[in-house]
């Protein structure tokens, strides 16, 4: 590592083993309970426009076996790729279909969901998990979520996202068991919409 | 009680890279309920059949503040349960308990606790044979295609043959379920008595098969329906009498031989449940003749 890099590089976890476990549990429970917000108990100083929760998720979940794709907003800042390479060793890929995780800071400009790895009918797990930075998450109003992990029905919305995002989510649900899983991050908060969730207006 | 961690181990035994790989598999398993996610199962310091799949899932999930309970046939005191509990006390320094209510993570081999689980609990199953179609079709490529096409007719045929032969569905363990109307899943080797407890459970349920290298999951509040037929609906095992020790009705009972003259009694398979009820003052018909701590030995 160059001297210049070490002065700009954001720090990783303070207690790597325990922090990674705590972040994973938070993300796991977010995925298990679609639309419910979980708050990370681990503070990470993120690089550039990356949300703290997105950086924490990357540190906890990514390594050389999980290729990462960055949207234009994150790819434009070399500090993001440096942070990921240094702390996780994850390869950064240009092709979203090759990504295990995709990190996005600009949700409104995100590419269609079927640009990412959707898995195959035999191996639907070979798909991308999208980690989308948003400016707000609301569980008081918005879309109605139902399906596994939802006790009856719950409300959820987040943004900014593309105006036709609801349609994109329902197309994604239509591919089940193929499809992508979405994690929304805002500050140190995390909420998920896995492919199994039925989302309606 | 928290145990001091033995020096020289990774926390919860597994190295961090292995944990990340298992954790990624768990996220996919939760997102695709009932689908078997392949994972690179590691050698564990215990033989297959001792729950290496469940142990790896628990090791990937557990944290320093968790309280772990381990059961085998409903009992916390079998060799298998004790050794897994000690393993995590030693390698992760976590608190352990036999109380279902106090546990945050429960690893099990056969039973789902009788006491209702909560949203704050995770149930980890150690699974020997994760593929419900395996005994109908030995080839993995074929069963994968059957799952992909949702082609589950063979399983219905198998259950119907049960009916033709026995007049009812004779399968009592590893009874197949359909998860959220999509994947056929094996809850093996739990008794079918416990199938209804999986349905819409508030607890997250994770399944690990070490030898077969599979992880699958039921998120909380997931539809889990036991396969059946209109004229032969799914029924759980019924027991004629209540537990001989705590008088509980509607629970799973084990037969305990009392002497060599054919004396026997039926008692709760869930020892914590039975002991809790006895502590609350419930008395079964055999209690007077049994030592106070005489559970399902
Ligand atoms: Zn009892």
Number of strands of chain B: 12
Which protein chains make the most extensive interface, counting residues with beta carbons within 8 Å of the other chain's beta carbons?
Answer: A-B, 41 and 44 residues
Q: Which bin fits the share of residues in helices of chain B?
A: 25-40%
Shape of chain B: globular
CATH architecture heading of chain A: 3-Layer(aba) Sandwich
Distance between the termini of chain B: 24 Å
CATH-assigned fold name of chain A: Rossmann fold
Low-pLDDT residue intervals, each spanning 5 or more residues of chain B? none
CATH topology of the largest domain in chain B: Rossmann fold
Taken from the alpha-carbon principal axes, the silhouette of chain A is: globular
**How many structural units, i.e. domains of chain B?**
2
Strand order of the largest sheet of chain A: 1-8-7-4-3-2
CATH-level-4 superfamily name of chain A:
Bacterial phosphonate metabolism protein PhnH
Reading the helices and strands of chain B in chain order gives: HEHEHEEEHHEEHEEEEEH
* β-strand amount of chain A: 15-25%
Discrete helix count of chain B? 7
Mean pLDDT of chain B: 91
Structural class of chain B: alpha/beta
Small ligands present: zinc ion
**Main pleated sheet of chain A:** 6 strands, mixed
Quick overview:
The complex is a heterodimer of chains A (201) and B (297). Chain A is α/β, with parallel strands linked by helices. Chain A has helices spanning 3-8, 16-32, 52-61, 72-75, 78-88, 165-174; strands spanning 38-39, 68-70, 101-104, 129-133, 136-146, 154-159, 181-186, 189-193, 198-200.
């Amino acid at each position: 590592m160059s001297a210049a890099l070490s002065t700009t590089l954001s720090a990783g976890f303070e207690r790597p083993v325990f922090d990674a476990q705590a972040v994973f549990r938070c993300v796991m429970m977010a995925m298990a309970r679609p639309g419910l917000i979980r708050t990370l108990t681990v503070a990470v100083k993120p690089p550039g426009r990356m949300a703290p929760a997105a950086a924490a998720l990357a540190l906890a979940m990514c390594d050389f076996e999980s290729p990462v794709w960055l949207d234009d907003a994150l790819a434009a800042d070399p500090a993001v790729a440096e942070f990921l390479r240094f702390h996780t060793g994850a390869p950064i890929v240009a092709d979203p279909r090759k990504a295990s995780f995709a990190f996005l800071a600009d949700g409104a400009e995100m590419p269609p969901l079927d640009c990412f790895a959707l898995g195959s009918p035999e191996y639907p797990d070979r798909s991308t998990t999208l980690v989308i930075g948003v400016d707000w998450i609301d569980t008081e109003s918005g879309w109605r979520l139902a399906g596994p992990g939802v006790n009856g029905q719950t409300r959820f919305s987040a943004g900014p996202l593309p105006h036709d995002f609801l349609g994109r989510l329902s197309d994604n649900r239509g591919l089940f068991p193929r499809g992508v899983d979405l994690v929304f991050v805002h500050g140190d908060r995390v909420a998920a919409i896995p492919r199994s969730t039925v989302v309606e207006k | 009680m928290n145990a001091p961690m033995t020096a020289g181990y990774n926390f919860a035994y597994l190295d961090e890279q292995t944990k990340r790989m298992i954790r990624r598999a768990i996220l996919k398993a939760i997102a695709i309920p009932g689908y078997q996610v392949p994972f690179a199962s590691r050698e564990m310091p215990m033989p297959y059949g001792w729950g290496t799949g469940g142990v790896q899932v628990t090791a990937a999930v557990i944290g320093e503040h968790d309280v772990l309970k381990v059961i085998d046939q409903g009992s916390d005191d079998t060799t298998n349960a004790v050794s897994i509990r000690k393993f995590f006390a030693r390698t992760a320094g976590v608190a352990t308990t036999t109380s279902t209510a106090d546990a945050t993570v429960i690893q099990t081999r056969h039973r789902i606790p009788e006491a209702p689980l909560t949203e704050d609990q995770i149930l980890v199953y150690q699974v020997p044979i994760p593929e419900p179609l395996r005994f109908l079709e030995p080839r993995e490529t074929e069963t994968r295609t059957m799952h992909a096409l949702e082609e589950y007719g063979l399983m219905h045929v198998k259950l119907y043959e049960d009916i033709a032969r026995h007049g009812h569905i004779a399968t009592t363990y590893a009874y197949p379920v359909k998860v959220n109307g999509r994947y056929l899943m094996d809850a093996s080797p739990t008794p079918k008595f416990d199938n209804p407890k999986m349905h819409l459970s508030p607890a997250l349920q994770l399944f690990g098969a070490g030898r077969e290298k599979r992880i699958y999951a039921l998120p909380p509040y997931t539809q889990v329906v036991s396969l059946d037929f209109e004229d032969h609906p799914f029924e759980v095992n019924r027991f004629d009498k209540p537990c001989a020790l705590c008088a509980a009705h509607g629970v799973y009972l084990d037969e305990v031989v009392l002497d060599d003259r054919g004396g026997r009694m039926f008692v709760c398979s869930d020892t914590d449940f039975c002991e809790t009820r006895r502590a609350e003052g419930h008395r079964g018909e055999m209690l007077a003749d049994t030592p106070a701590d005489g559970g399902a030995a």
